[in-house]
Structures are given as structure tokens and as C-alpha cells.
Amino acid sequence: MLFRFKTKSQELALVLTVCWVLVPFSLSQEEQTSKSSEKDEKGRKVQRVNVVAERFNFTPSQIKVKQGTLLEITLTSDDTFHGFRVPSMQINQVIPARGRGSVKVVFDAKEKGTYSFECSRPCGAGHTMMRGVIVVE
Ligand SMILES: [Cu+2]
């Protein structure tokens, strides 16, 4: 034995210290692997993007993606409930209010073009201005 703990709380303190060191490290590892895994199980290229909805805009509001890619959009809100609708793709999802998690939408970028998206849930005076585009090139 190299060291002995006088009390249980000292032992707990060391365990907590070790966790603080290890947890951020394992999180950063996970981030690296998700960035490098660009293909799904069927060999399709996957591009992931996080979009934040907030009265009255989406950030980013322009998303560029290469044709043939599956675009995986993770949507979160920084205030109230919003919606994410791509009228031309039959996509319409509710974005939960801040602190209530996120929602994922998969956009199949089959054909080149500009696809507009918009908020689909009335959220205030600027609701109809809350829009953006996905550009497939
Ligand atoms: Cu809205």
C-alpha cells in the first residue's frame, strides 16, 4: 500500500478528482470519433450539423451539403418551442423548448438545389421571418 486514507471522505475526494480528469477526456475522444465517422452503416456519407432556434432565427441559417450526403441536423432551442419544416421534403418536427433536449432530422441530399426551411410553430411576432436554406451542391 502506497497510501492510506484516514477517512472515507478523503477516499471519496480522490475518486471525484479522478472522475473530473477522466470525464472530459473521454468526452473529447467521443467527439473526435463522431467527426471522423463520415459514413453510416450503408456506406452513405453523413454530415452532422447543430442548428439553434431562437426568436426569430436559426443559427446557422444556411447549411451547405454535398449531393449524395445524408445531412443529420440536431435542433435545439434557446428559448421557446419552435418547429423545423422543409416544405419540399415533408419534414416537420417540433423543436423542444430550451432545456428540454433536442430533436434530430435527417435530410437526404439526393438532388442539387436550394431547399428552404422555416419555423412551423407560432412563436411570436417574427415567426414568419424565421427561415433558412439547405444548399445541396
Ligand atoms: Cu416560429
Explain how this protein is built.
The chain has one helix and nine strands, in the order αβββββββββ. It is an alpha/beta fold and 137 residues long. It has two domains: 1-36; 38-136, Cupredoxins -  blue copper proteins (Immunoglobulin-like, Sandwich). The strands form three sheets. The protein has a four-stranded mixed beta sheet, with no helix packed on it. A three-stranded mixed beta sheet has the order 3-9-8, with no helix packed on it. The site of copper (II) ion has 7 residues, from loops.
Map the helices and strands.
Blueprint: H1 8-36, E1 46-54, E2 57-59, E3 62-65, E4 70-77, E5 82-86, E6 91-95, E7 103-108, E8 113-118, E9 131-136
Largest sheet: 4 strands, mixed
CATH top level of the largest domain? Mainly Beta
Beta content comes to 35-45%
CATH architecture of the largest domain, by name, is Sandwich
Kindly report the oligomeric state of this protein: single chain
Strand order of the largest sheet: 2-1-4-7
**Domains counted in the coordinates: how many?**
2
CATH superfamily of the largest domain: Cupredoxins -  blue copper proteins
Radius of gyration: 21 Å
Keywords:
binds copper (II) ion; alpha/beta; 137 residues; three-stranded mixed β-sheet; Immunoglobulin-like; four-stranded mixed β-sheet; 1 helix
